[in-house]
């Protein structure tokens, strides 16, 4: 292992907080990462991390060493990226891209395809799901996120926004009581996406006033496609993100309800780990994704 790889390994250990997590991020075996740390500590002559039962934490010396290592790695990456730009060398390597399932399927997958068409030496692993991955510990290079990331280690580009919309099918609305205000919701059957932990309640906002409605869902499921299918077939009302039901609303299969009470828009963002922001392929894909996503009418609200 050369010295730059050794520094990158140590920085990954500090950022992730575990040898196994660092190995996963770096696509190396845990024993190799353990050996690299041991060799580095032996060479500098002091302990760089404290080992606990749950995670690793840097010592004072390790924290200072990691900060300087990041500076060196960022400097090296900047020099290399400028050389690539100057010489026009092709991008190469593997990128791990993450996106929500439906948004990824409809909008990120085409972006991935167009990027691969331009850069034949690049390989991409596209990971789709509703769980918000820890980009650093999971080794994700670029993610498209719906919502506000809370990790200060991430570099964020806002590309637009979507809204939380309440919807129902025309057939359901014809046979149910009118829905004019959030307080009418308890009179209705609710289809609820339970993929995230949290209370079964809906929050609405109108003229600065918050309305919270507790629910007893008729149907709960962890699968978004099942929620959309159920509400489209007339099983009840559901709150979903606007991009998830854009086609159904446009075709008249679903009706948007209580638009005056919708909460504030939810940001759509391209996110990369700060330690990866100068890598040429990462930066190129992030630029391509941000430019492509900004053209989507569904997030220019």
Automatic annotation (TrEMBL):
Pfam families: HTH_1 (PF00126), LysR_substrate (PF03466). Residues 1-59 form the HTH lysR-type domain. This is DNA-binding transcriptional LysR family regulator. Belongs to the LysR transcriptional regulatory family. It comes from the Bacteria. It comes from Bradyrhizobium yuanmingense. One of its GO terms (molecular function) is DNA binding. InterPro entries: LysR-type_TF_proteobact-type (IPR058163), LysR_HTH_N (IPR000847), LysR_subst-bd (IPR005119), WH-like_DNA-bd_sf (IPR036388), WH_DNA-bd_sf (IPR036390). NodD regulates the expression of the nodABCFE genes which encode other nodulation proteins. NodD is also a negative regulator of its own expression. Binds flavonoids as inducers. Keywords: DNA-binding, Transcription, Transcription regulation.
């Amino acid at each position: 292992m050369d010295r730059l790889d050794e520094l990158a390994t140590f920085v990954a250990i500090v950022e992730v907080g575990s040898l196994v997590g660092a190995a996963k991020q770096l696509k190396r075996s845990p024993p190799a990462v353990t050996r690299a740390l041991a060799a580095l500590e032996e060479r500098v002559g002091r302990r760089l991390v404290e080992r606990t039962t749950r995670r690793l934490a840097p010592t004072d010396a390790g924290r200072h060493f990691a900060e300087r290592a990041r500076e060196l790695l960022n400097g090296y990456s900047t020099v290399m990226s400028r050389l690539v730009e100057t010489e026009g060398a092709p991008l190469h390597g593997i990128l791990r891209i993450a996106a929500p399932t439906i948004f990824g399927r409809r909008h990120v997958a085409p972006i991935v395809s167009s990027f691969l068409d331009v850069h034949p030496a690049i390989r991409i692993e596209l990971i789709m799901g509703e769980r918000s991955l820890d980009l650093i510990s999971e080794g994700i290079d670029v993610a498209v996120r719906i919502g506000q990331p809370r990790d200060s280690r991430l570099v964020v580009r806002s590309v637009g926004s979507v809204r939380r919309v309440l919807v129902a099918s025309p057939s359901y609305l014809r046979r149910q009581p009118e829905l004019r205000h959030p307080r009418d919701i308890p009179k209705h059957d609710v289809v609820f996406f339970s993929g995230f932990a949290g209370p079964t309640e809906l929050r609405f906002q109108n003229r600065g006033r918050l309305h919270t409605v507790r629910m007893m869902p008729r149907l709960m499921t962890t699968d978004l496609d099942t929620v959309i299918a159920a509400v489209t077939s007339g099983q009840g009302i559901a709150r979903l993100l606007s991009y998830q039901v854009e086609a159904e609303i446009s075709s008249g299969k679903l009706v948007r309800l209580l638009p005056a009470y919708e909460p504030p828009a939810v940001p759509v963002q391209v996110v990369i780990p700060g330690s990866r922001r100068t890598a040429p392929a990462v930066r190129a894909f992030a630029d391509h994704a941000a430019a492509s996503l900004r053209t989507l009418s569904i997030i220019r609200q």
